[in-house]
Specification:
This protein is mainly beta. It has one domain: SH3 type barrels, CATH 2.30.30. It contains 1 helix and 7 strands; from the N terminus they run E-E-E-E-E-E-E-H. Strands 4-6-3-2-1-7-5 form a 7-stranded antiparallel sheet, with helices on one face. A hairpin with a 4-residue loop joins strand 2 and strand 3. The protein is globular, with a radius of gyration of 13 Å. The N and C termini lie far apart (35 Å).
Length: 109
């Protein structure tokens, strides 16, 4: 698999808080850094009423999909090396990506 692009939903193993290997979880690629690193945004099935969660439904995908409707957690950003990504599950449409980027910008404003 090549380096994922911004807007792709990827699946990777998330470590648990005790740093033991965790379950496979989806995340959204929001930035492509120089080298092998990417900035990702966590995706979860559980709704949050914190003002940062953005719904992600089947209609938001340009290609691919997730098994269930989910939420992009714009306040849960992290950097990973592309080698930990297991596979790409799909790519979201540009309007949804712009919505996520706007929410991220609000955090840092």
């Amino acid at each position: 698999m090549g380096k994922p692009v911004i807007g792709e939903v990827v699946v990777l193993p998330f470590p648990q808080t005790n740093l033991q290997s965790g379950k496979r979880r989806p995340a959204l690629v929001v930035a492509d850094l120089v080298g092998d690193d990417l900035v990702l945004c966590q995706i979860t099935r559980k709704p949050r009423s914190d003002g940062y969660s953005i719904p992600l439904i089947l209609a938001d995908f340009e290609r691919g999909r997730l098994a269930v409707d989910s939420f992009i957690r714009s306040n849960r950003l992290f950097t990973v090396e592309q080698s930990v990504i297991l596979y790409a599950a799909g790519k979201i449409k540009d309007p949804k990506l712009q919505e996520v980027k706007a929410k991220i910008r609000q955090i840092f404003a």
